[in-house]
Amino acid sequence: MLRFNKLSKRLKTFIRFTGLTIKEFHNLRNKAYPIWIKLEELRLKRNNRIRNIGGGRKGNLPSFEDKLLLILIHYRLYLTVEVLGYLMGLDNSNICRHLKRLEILFAKIRVSFLAKPKGTKKINSLEELFEKYPDLRELTIDATEQSIQRPKKNKKQKEYYSGKKKKHTIKTQIIITKDKKIFDISNSYSGSNHDYTVFKKELTPDKIPEKVKLNLDNGYQGIKKDYPDINVCLPNKANNANIKTQLTNKTNNTN
Asked: What are the helix (H) ranges across 49-176?
């Protein structure tokens, strides 16, 4: 999922997606945030509101920076609600609600450069998005482990011990694009977690746009059965019976 704290670490990509530098983004944020707070107070205290303040469904974009990122990408790339939903990890109705409120905000602060591009064809599908940004078409997923000091408690020792590394580690899943740009970084997990377990705990399939090809190693066996709709590329796993047959045939041919 695209989020400000991750995209802001890729400066060139951030400019391509938003049209702003990090400094310009923060200047816009500082200008817009006080007005956003006032608009939200008016919205929550309106006379026809049924629930008490604090009640109701919580938004999936909790930070104001993520909300700004959403509308900037919307205007910069001119994406449809469906495509925005895939990128931001939100459903269509959620995207519409956010955009409606943010457009009222930007009308208040009179941001002139955020005009919808004239004469530009709107991106209506993932195929059109991939054509314009081909680096998103193919992703590689793998987990990396970092050594940690041996925990003092026996329970923690067992939890953080990695059978693969034969040491105590923490594990993080990283998703990169074809041109080796970071698409997503997971939370950290104890070293005893299997790579595929981290994949499922992170709800990784929900982060991946449809039709994107995923390159994985043999640590993700079972993914084709569990997620048949995902386009997955796995290396052929060695089979002991096949290896034995190949060795026998080789011996017979030699004799």
From this structure: 64-77, 81-88, 92-109, 126-132, 154-160
Q: Give span(s): CATH 3.30.420, the chain.
A: 135-240
Burial label, 79 (beta-carbon count in 10 A; 0-12, 13-18, 19+): buried
Taking each helix axis from N to C terminus, what angle separates 92-109 and 22-44, rounded to the nearest 10 degrees? 100
The predicted model scores a pTM of 0.46
Q: Which CATH number fits domain 135-240: 3.30.420, 2.40.10, 2.60.40, 1.10.3470?
A: 3.30.420
Q: Provide the 10 A C-beta neighbour count for residue 181.
A: 12
- Average pLDDT per 10 consecutive residues for the chain, totaling 255 residues: 86 88 91 88 68 56 88 83 85 86 80 55 72 78 88 89 90 85 84 92 84 86 88 71 56 57
C-beta atoms surrounding 208 within 10 Å:
20
Amino acid at site 149: Q
